[in-house]
Amino acid sequence: MSQFGKVIYASAEQGDCNDMKQAWKRNGLLDMRNVYLGVEVDFSGLLEEVQKRGKRKLIILDSIDYINLTKEQYQELHTIAKRYMMVFTSWSSGSSPKTQSAKDIEYMCNGKIRVEHYVAFGKMRSGGNVPYVIYEARAKQKHSFVNR
Predict the structure, then answer these.
(1) Are 106 and 84 in contact (CB under 8 A)?
(2) What is the CATH number of the domain that holds 50?
(3) Is there a single domain that holds both residue 101 and residue 33?
(4) Which of 61, 55, 106 is nearest to 81 (CA)?
(5) Residues of 65-83 as b/e, b for ≥16 C-beta within 10 angstroms?
(6) What whole-number distance in Å separates Cα of residue 28 and Cα of residue 98?
(7) Least C-beta-crowded within 10 Å: which of 66, 99, 145, 148?
(8) pLDDT tens digits, one per residue of 82-103
(9) What Cα–Cα distance (Å) separates residue 12 from each residue in 8, 20, 26, 107, 108?
(10) pLDDT tens profile 91-134
(11) Are 59 and 84 in contact (CB under 8 A)?
């Protein structure tokens, strides 16, 4: 993930728990010098990191709901970090974001990706909305289109 530049990974929900460390290790992310892992981050802490860390290219926020990010805070972050790519995770209810704030933010984003049973379903304004199979063996158990 840091091959494209410096990254802020705000992991308020998962923190630096053992599961997170194992996932990073499994995916070869532990040795990345360009990644700042922020744990126990609230909105003001995230803004502070964005402003002091300089030329970051990517912000990952886990999750909108855990830090109670509001529509107005998202707009403020978007204004400050216009040139950043931002990835947010959100709690869901069915195939939609669970909270009204997350729904509002979803409408303001260029792309949305919903992951269901090991398949990522993209919904982008620019098109290219083809499902991406993350783990074929498990996806075949739930999605008939994977078996074609």
Answers:
(1) no
(2) 3.40.50.300
(3) yes
(4) 55
(5) bbbebbeebbeebeeebee
(6) 31
(7) 148
(8) 888 899 999 999 888 999 999 9
(9) 12, 12, 21, 23, 22
(10) 999 888 999 999 999 999 988 999 999 999 998 888 888 999 99
(11) yes
Q: Helices 43-52 and 71-80 sit at what angle, rounded to 10 degrees?
A: 0
Kindly report the pTM of this predicted structure: 0.79
Segments forming the whole domain that contains residue 70: 2-109
In the three-class reduction of DSSP (H, G, I as helix; E, B as strand; rest coil), residue 65 is classed as coil
Domain match, 37 and 58 both: yes
What tokens does 100 get?
């009204």
Place of tokens 């009204």: 100
Based on the fold, state whether residues 91 and 18 are members of the same structural domain.
yes
Q: State how far the alpha carbon of 123 is from the alpha carbons of 67, 75, 95, 106, 110, in Å.
A: 25, 21, 12, 11, 9
Those residues with Cβ within 8 angstroms of residue 69's Cβ, 6 or more apart along the chain or in another chain:
43, 61, 88, 101, 105
Phi, psi of 110 (to 5 degrees): -75, -35
Please say whether the beta carbons of 118 and 134 come within 8 A: yes
106 and 63 in contact (C-beta within 8 Å)?
no
Side chain identity at residue 140, one-letter code:
K
Number of domains into which the chain is organized: 2
